[in-house]
Amino acid sequence: MTTSPTVDTPPDDTRTRIHPFSRMLAGVISAGLVLAVGEVLSLFFSPSSSPFLAVGSTTVDRTPSWAREFAIDTFGTNDKVALFVGMSVLIVLISAVAGLLERPSRPIGSVILAVLGAVGVFAVTQRPTSDTVDVIPTVVGVIVGIVLLRLLTRALVPPPGERDGAMPRRKFLVLAGAAAAVAVAAGAVGRYVGERAAGLADDMRNFRIPTVPAGNAAPAIPAGTDIGVDGATSFVTANDTFYRIDTALQVPQLTTEEWQLRIHGMVDREITLSWDDLMARTPIERVITLTCVSNEVGGPLAGNATWVGFPIADILDEAGVQADADMLLSTSIDGMTIGTPVEALRDGRDAMLAVSMNGQPLPLEHGYPVRQVVPGLYGYVSATKWVVDWELTRFDQAQAYWTERGWGERGPIKTASRIDVPAAFAPVSPGRVRIAGTAWHQHVGIDRVEVRVDDGPWQEATLAEEYSVDTWRQWYWDWDATAGNHNVQVRATDRTGETQTEERTPPIPGGSTGWHTRTIIVS
Ligand SMILES: Nc1nc2c(c(=O)[nH]1)N[C@H]1C(S)=C(S)[C@@H](COP(=O)(O)O)O[C@H]1N2
Ligand SMILES: [Mo]
């Protein structure tokens, strides 16, 4: 025990000279909180925004080659571990000193933390892929850490008039304990989630699209499937503009190694497919247009892509579907359930477990590593992304997610057509105007598209070349526009001869109906 200060010794500095161990602890815990806050916030930015990792990576980048060789020689494949241990020891030492030097009236320790933070900020800016905003996790972490250090240091000062004992004060212990617990928990969560993301990035980088035998390749896409009108829907939709619809607040992160598909229920044999099992099968390649039941008349929720995957029917045959099973209830890793009529999966159409979209692994948002694609059914009854479970069951025994919420049970696609060009409110001059758009009725086909202006006679539009009945069909029609406001309308007729109904119905429960109308101002 040191000499006790007298009541009239004013500066807290003297009094905080007690409890050196507690003060060092305060410094270390504060530095830990800086790192933990940085780690957690980095999840919302990029991996290179984690201060600890950024300092580590920048150190590696800047290590002279003799030191690097020394490290590899000495630590072998543990060189990364050695680096992190070394960094941790250094941080503990520096922050212990920071804690020791911090005084309520002389924030030397805070300045040391700020300097450590500056090193972190510098390291983040040195990362090849970092943005300016990536320094935010470090900066916020340092501010939180300094606030904690100041609070802890102040908690060690006994109130005026009170003689301090040998034990750190209770307020300090509670605060330090809580902060340490928060730092450890946050740091662990941050590291875990961050590592998962890094593992997934690796998995996607190493992903090999299965080689499709020549006989299973999709026919080449003829140039005539595109109509070449600026602003009109292109035949193939790029992955990054493909519509995305799902209930996932956070995109599921599932590696090929973690993925498996369990097939059970009304089957003769339960099967669990691993990624390798799936890859051992023979893939097919198909061009298929996907559409969403929630699409309003004229809406954007449709896209067309080249998919590589594995026929669902063959897998079902291996499991042996029992005669009275009429529903495949598929479940995704995030718990979405989708009920698909077994008939649609076994009637010869190209229903597939897709693993690739337009020559790329499935993008994460579109179901990496495995999703279903079924021509002719809306997505909500067929296109399960991140699919991991198949139960063969019956429509009178099971209900899928959207059916429980009032949507139709089976979801066959309705014929749809839409005007893309001229765009809404686009300035149009009198004279020849090319009106263009797309139309679809997957697995049935589009035979005719008609356009009319101001309730005049229907005029037949020119159709693009048909790729297959499973894809949409683009169209255009040339109009001699006169000045004024005009209503242009479109309707399509499918291969069965049925023309779209004029009756407007909302998307729920079975998809919207009605003719798409666009007002065009010609002046
Ligand atoms: N796991 C999961 N799969 C899902 C959904 C979902 O919410 N979760 N939505 C479905 C719906 S409603 C549609 S229209 C399609 C959309 O697929 P996309 O986002 O790849 O365009 O995915 C289907 N698959
Ligand atoms: Mo959908």
Walk me through what this model shows:
This is Molybdopterin-dependent oxidoreductase. By secondary structure, the chain is of the alpha+beta class. It has 3 domains: about 20-200, no CATH class; about 215-405, Alpha-Beta Complex (Sulfite Oxidase, Chain A, domain 2), CATH 3.90.420; about 415-520, Immunoglobulin-like, CATH 2.60.40.650. Helices cover about 30% and strands about 20% of the residues. The protein is built from 11 helices and 20 strands. The strands form 5 sheets. Strands 4-3-12-7-8 form a 5-stranded mixed β-sheet. Strands 5, 6, 9, 10 and 11 form a 5-stranded antiparallel β-sheet that branches. The structure holds the ligand Nc1nc2c(c(=O)[nH]1)N[C@H]1C(S)=C(S)[C@@H](COP(=O)(O)O)O[C@H]1N2 and molybdenum atom. Molybdenum atom (MO) binds next to loops.
Name its key features.
disordered N terminus, Immunoglobulin-like, elongated, transmembrane, OxRdtase_Mopterin-bd_sf, alpha+beta, Sulfite Oxidase, Chain A, domain 2, 3 domains, binds ligand MTE, five-stranded mixed sheet, five-stranded antiparallel sheet, transmembrane helix, binds molybdenum atom, 523 residues, OxRdtase_Mopterin-bd_dom, 32% helix
